[in-house]
Amino acid sequence: MDVNMKVNLSGVVLDNPIIPASGTFGFGEEFKDLYDLNILGSISFKGTTREPRFGNPTPRIAECPSGLLNSVGLQNPGIDAVINEEIPKLCKYFHKPLIANISGFSIDDYAYACEKIDKVEQVGIIEVNVSCPNVKHGGMSFGTNPESAAEVTKAVKAVTTKPVYIKLSPNVTDIASIAKACEEAGADGFTLINTLLGMRIDIKTRKPVLANAMGGLSGPAVFPVALRMVYQVYKAVSVPIIGMGGISSAADVIEMMMAGASAVQIGSANLVDPFICKTIIEELPKKMRELGIKSLSELKPTF
Amino acid sequence: MRQLIFEVNNIRPIADKVFELILLGDTSDIIRPGQFVNIRVDGKYLRRPISVCDWDEDSLTLIFKVFGEGTEIMSRLQKGDKIDILSGLGNGFTVTDSKKALLVGGGVGVPPLYALAKKLIEQGVKPVVILGFASSKDVFYKNEFESLGLKTYVATVDGSEGTKGFVTDSIKENNLQCDYFYACGPMPMLKALCLELECPGQLSLEERMGCGFGACMGCSIITAKGSKRVCHDGPVFYKEDLLWT
């Protein structure tokens, strides 16, 4: 049986739905010698802000059952260095449209960075991160109520020409209402979920493991939550969704697409198995045949 | 970096909660002392980064201390067990031709200095070794360094073996002179060495890591040359690049 793994995100056609998630793949540099990056559907590069950022103090990683907490805090070299140095370097090895992950601390920050990244030819989709749990004043605070999320969406849409996907936070009561507000403000799609706010305490020192006390939980532990939220957003909006949260196998990819995702991102799994995206891309056709799935783009909730 | 399967050839306790683990497998990715491997541990999500103590063509010696659940699981490994490792991580030490070198290790920072000592000897340098531990029950590898023909001093915080106090106390007590130093151990020890030794040196840092190969930015530090990832740009840094606040 011939199988078709192609998916369409707002007119950007991907050879397959597998996209390494922002923050777990840098700008591809650490993976380019492990396998040909062009096997990937796309790459969502490290979250970029207007100014360079070091991020939070260390330790900023903590082990959890089936996952990890991180409190990196958007470490990145800033929008200008990303455009002038990182993207040209990455595009030597990767020849497909990129997903540009952009974060900010004010509406103006988002608009400023998105307007600049919109002019970069290799960028296919702009992913607006309104859901980073690791920064104060900005980040997640924009993504936790419908009005401010819509305001960011509107400001970004006004200065860009490429598809704008809003990356949503799971740390909310009603994710569907936030997605709806963004869709009304012009969002072309959604990426979800960002990490779930969590915490660990070292019982010997009686202090939090993370220097920042709290951090974002990711990994297989969050997969059922991510799946549920993708389904809820799918029911609420009519634009494409990139599903993410704990995906670690071809079976997970198919399950996420059956919940309503048009493509997926692989995050934490890259950190413990740097070859995971390659493995999943190789396993997907086998899994599709096993399940009688001819085309991934046909998958959607039937319930 | 490669992902490889190694087989446990031997595991034995060498001090209180400290184990020496000898693995068989392809070590060709390890090219310098001070590099590390990242070990997948059954039942744990993140890998455990452990510095390479010594290696030859087909065997790898690691030393680790049981600190938490991950290393506890590792301590129960048995001969014949297979483990999944990412090999050849980190930059490692750069051997210089300084003749009066000190090797300074603290606790589980001692292991990478062993392969480094052997490399220095190959280059015709006979370093003096100072090993710091909390107590005599924690001391390991003193004999191994001495067997290489190196003068080896021990300091223990409680004074139960060697100089009472820290490695810096041992350096003072024995009036040890150097034109270069190589060190690995806890951050307060590394800081004290940088402040007290006038000569240049290289220091291997420890930081909590996510991936171990530069992807997640979990272990970044700020240096004189900007932000660096301990796992990928380090773990070995030159003294002049480290900022102590």
Explain this structure to me?
The complex is a heterodimer of chains A (303) and B (245). Chain A has 303 residues and is an alpha/beta fold. Chain A has a single domain, classed as TIM Barrel (Alpha-Beta Barrel). Chain A has helices at residues 79-90, 107-118, 146-158, 175-184, 223-236, 250-258, 269-272, 276-291, and strands spanning 7-9, 12-14, 18-20, 61-64, 67-70, 98-102, 123-129, 164-167, 189-192, 196-199, 201-202, 207-208, 214-218, 241-244, 263-266. In chain A, strands 3-15-14-9-8-7-6 form a seven-stranded parallel beta sheet. A four-stranded antiparallel beta sheet of chain A has the order 4-5-13-10, with no helix packed on it. Chain A has a two-stranded antiparallel ribbon with strand order 1-2. In chain A, strand 6 (98-102), helix 2 and strand 7 form a beta-alpha-beta unit. The radius of gyration of chain A is 18 Å and the shape is globular. The model of chain A has no long low-confidence stretch (mean pLDDT 96). With 245 residues, chain B is an alpha/beta fold. Chain B folds into three domains: 2-89, Beta Barrel (Elongation Factor Tu (Ef-tu), domain 3), CATH 2.40.30.10; 93-203, Nucleotide-binding domain of ferredoxin-NADP reductase (FNR) module (Rossmann fold); 205-245, Dihydroorotate dehydrogenase, electron transfer subunit (Dihydroorotate dehydrogenase B (pyrk subunit), domain 3), CATH 2.10.240.10. In chain B, the strands form three sheets. In chain B, strands 10-9-8-7-11-12-15 form a seven-stranded mixed beta sheet, sandwiched between helices. Chain B is built from five helices and 15 strands. The mean pLDDT of chain B is 96. The A-B interface holds A 23-26, 29-31, 33-34, 46, 54-55, 58-68, 70, 72, 75, 219-220, 268, 270-275 and B 1, 3, 40, 44-47, 70, 86, 207-211, 213-222, 227, 232.
